[in-house]
Q: What sequence folds into this?
């Protein structure tokens, strides 16, 4: 059987983890973050979220080293739990990755429309009262086609693209954050929280799983590690992605809150760009921010397409879904059918326009937390060392709390009816696509 190409190195895995995690939320929904928590609430929410994810990252490091399998959570849970649990976990993690792709396809149209207002024309229809413009749609669908084609052609092309865009985003972000140092004031942080301090942090912490999902995507490409790659480096790449991702988010929140009174920008589209433009009184800073955002969008879209396609590929290869999804292109050595399916599904959901953005964030957070919890539970069932068991138990508690604060009606910011509907649709779709027949051979018919 044809195997996936083995060409990835440590830098590639870091770029995949960090790049899959950090997209354009810091530009597109900065207003939502500040409304939830205020400057300090938003920063503490992301710092707390990053800290509680470290034990989960450690567990993933152990699991990937012991089971370098593109199936990721499907493989980890299959080692301990029944087949149904393995499928359900994989299906939820597939949602966590896949749902980011149309989010980015829609976001690029919004960014382009901000830079070139003439693109905010030729309205086709409205979804939930928000317009869908033809130019936005064309740009989003073109990007989807480009990245689908790039990944279809080979993992080395995709990884090189990911590396360069990741490096450029970090450099550009440091550039615009540094430019604001002499144009702001600490007084702009007041009030530090938007309401009660604890509630402010809590409301931001709820959406952190969505914006920090990505470090575990490293495991989805573990079969594509080069022959020289050392398995212990999976842990290094994961922890580095979590730490750098946390620093990135808190830095941008701090920079935005420093250069402009945050309450004056929370009702502005692209609050990050507006804050810097007002502080510096120039459009060049907006162009710099938008360049960083566009590159960040490209890398997070690409990274999630890689992860989602590998999850779908694994479902087919393990005979949990249509086995054709497990096909590997003989020349490119990529999961070509799975890649095309993710690209096509992304294009379909992109038609929904910007009304999808906030609900997608909420559902993606729950899906990621469910997958992380299942992986921690699976590792506990493997009876590791006492220290590793403590990390797994901590991860299990953390992820359970993440889930509860989204589903309990008493929790601030719990699921609305629209998010429950979106989740129900995904569950029903998974039930319809699940392959009921047991595999003819072992759990992984590679």
A:
């Amino acid at each position: 059987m044809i195997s996936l190409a083995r060409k990835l190195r440590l830098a590639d895995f870091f770029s995949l983890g960090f790049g899959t995690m950090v997209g354009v939320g810091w530009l597109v929904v900065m207003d939502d973050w500040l409304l939830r928590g205020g400057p300090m609430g938003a920063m503490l929410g992301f710092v707390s979220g990053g800290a509680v994810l470290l034990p989960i990252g450690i567990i993933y490091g152990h699991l990937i080293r012991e089971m370098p399998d593109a199936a990721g959570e499907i493989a980890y849970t299959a080692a301990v739990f029944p087949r149904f649990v393995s499928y359900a976990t994989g299906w939820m993690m597939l949602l966590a990755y896949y749902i980011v792709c149309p989010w980015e396809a829609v976001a690029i149209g919004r960014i382009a429309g901000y830079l070139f207002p003439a693109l905010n024309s030729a309205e086709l229809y409205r979804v939930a009262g928000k317009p869908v413009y033809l130019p936005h749609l064309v740009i989003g669908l073109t990007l989807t086609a480009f990245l689908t084609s790039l990944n279809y052609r080979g993992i080395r092309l995709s990884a090189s693209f990911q590396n360069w865009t990741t490096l450029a985003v970090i450099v550009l972000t440091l550039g615009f954050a540094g430019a604001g140092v002499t144009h702001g004031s600490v007084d702009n942080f007041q009030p530090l929280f938007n309401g009660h301090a604890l509630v402010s942090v809590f409301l931001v912490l709820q959406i952190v799983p969505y914006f920090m999902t990505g470090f575990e995507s490293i495991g989805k490409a573990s079969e594509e590690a080069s022959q020289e790659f050392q398995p212990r480096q999976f842990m290094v790449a994961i922890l580095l992605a979590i730490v750098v991702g946390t620093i990135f988010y808190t830095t941008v929140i701090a920079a935005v809150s420093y250069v402009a009174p945050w309450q004056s920008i929370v009702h502005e589209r692209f609050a990050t760009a507006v804050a810097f433009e007002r502080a510096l009184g120039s459009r060049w800073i907006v162009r710099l921010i938008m360049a960083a955002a566009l590159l960040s969008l490209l890398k997070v879209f690409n990274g999630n397409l890689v992860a989602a396609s590998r999850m779908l590929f694994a479902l087919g290869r393990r005979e949990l879904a249509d086995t054709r999804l497990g096909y590997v292109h003989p020349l490119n050595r990529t999961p070509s059918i799975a890649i095309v399916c993710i690209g096509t599904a992304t294009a379909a959901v992109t038609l929904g326009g910007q009304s999808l953005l906030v609900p997608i964030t909420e559902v993606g957070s729950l899906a990621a937390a469910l997958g992380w919890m299942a992986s921690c539970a699976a590792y506990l069932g493997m009876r590791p060392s006492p220290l590793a068991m403590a990390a797994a138990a901590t991860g299990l508690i953390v992820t359970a709390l993440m889930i509860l604060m989204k589903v309990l009606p008493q929790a601030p910011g719990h699921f609305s009816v629209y998010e429950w509907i979106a989740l129900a649709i995904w569950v029903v779709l998974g039930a319809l696509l699940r392959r009921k027949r047991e595999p003819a051979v072992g759990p992984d018919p590679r």
The chain has 17 helices and two strands. The first strand starts at residue 123 and ends at 127.
